[in-house]
User: Fold this.
Amino acid sequence: MLDEMDRPSRFSPQGSFPVAQDASCVGRGLPFGTKRVLILGASRSGTSAAQALLGLGLEVFVSDRQPLERLPGLREVVAAGASFLEEQGLGRAWPEPDLVIKSPGIPSEAEPVARARGSGVPVWSELELAYALLPNPFDAVTGTNGKTTTTALLGHLFASAGRPVRVLGNIGVAVTSVVGQVEPEVELVTEVSSFQLEDTHCFRPVVGIFLNLTPDHLDRHGSMERYLECKANLFRNQQRDDAAVLNAADPVVAALGVELNRRCDGPQVLFFSVEGRSAVSQAPGGASQLVGDQLVAWVEQGWIYLSGERLLQVKEVRIPGVHNLENCLAAATAAIVRGLARDQVAEGLASFPGVAHRLQTAGVVNGVKYVNDSKATN
Assistant:
């Protein structure tokens, strides 16, 4: 962790953010007395959650709208002892669960979710379940854009420095898939979406990265306010020995940092900005002093700066675009917080090849460069 910084004077941003800690969270583990668990959705995360829970000797039910014969990934889980319930008949065959695990694609207003909550049964995301079952440090990355690249890059920084790490989450690997498979010291770098964060209650990453916020998933969340509320769950349970890494160039994310600073028991708030220190000093809304005092990584005159000193030249970074520079700054800040040396961070940034199908140069034909960005989601 970086040396503790003096918390600057506060000011009131427009609006407020849901960053108060959940008082019911006393640590990791399943709710007391949990014996029977219902998993809604037989997706990759749902199937992985079922396997983890079966490994604990719990009674597991999995429900999905598709019949079992169309769910090849679930057959192994059923063979291992899980019970399958088709969604259409769930109302008649409600298994009276002690805990419900909801797959990210299932909305909160779905009837089984409402029934569980109406009966006082906790409803968790697979991310929350993984946090309850794993003692490892979580480094979590969220934002509307850039999550996958930043997650992969941070994992690369740890790996190239010799730090044991697994890259998980919305990037395509269920978080619960490593339950019982990794040593406690392994860093779990996890891409987390608003859908995954929506049903977290005690999740507490040692580092939470928030890249940006633009309109997205409003058909699910209903409003930007609710979308932000889900994203802000990333920091809800963080404490003073944790870190919130935020983009000073995004006004909503920067204002969230102001709010987090108001919490006397909140995380250390650290900012990055591709716009440089001079641009941050002119930030509107009274945030300039706050952001300036806590700015850790920025770009200026062709150099990436980290903790007040030049780290490497921008031209040494292999992934193209200003947005990828922001991803580099975020990952570098998180890496230095987690104890990597400056030279390890610099070497990792320079050697990162990027993510497959994300702004990859496919070739040059007749002087025209073709770029493969087929995995872009918006």
Observations:
- The longest helix spans residues 322-337.
- The mean pLDDT is 87.
- The CA atoms of residues 302 and 315 lie 8 Å apart.
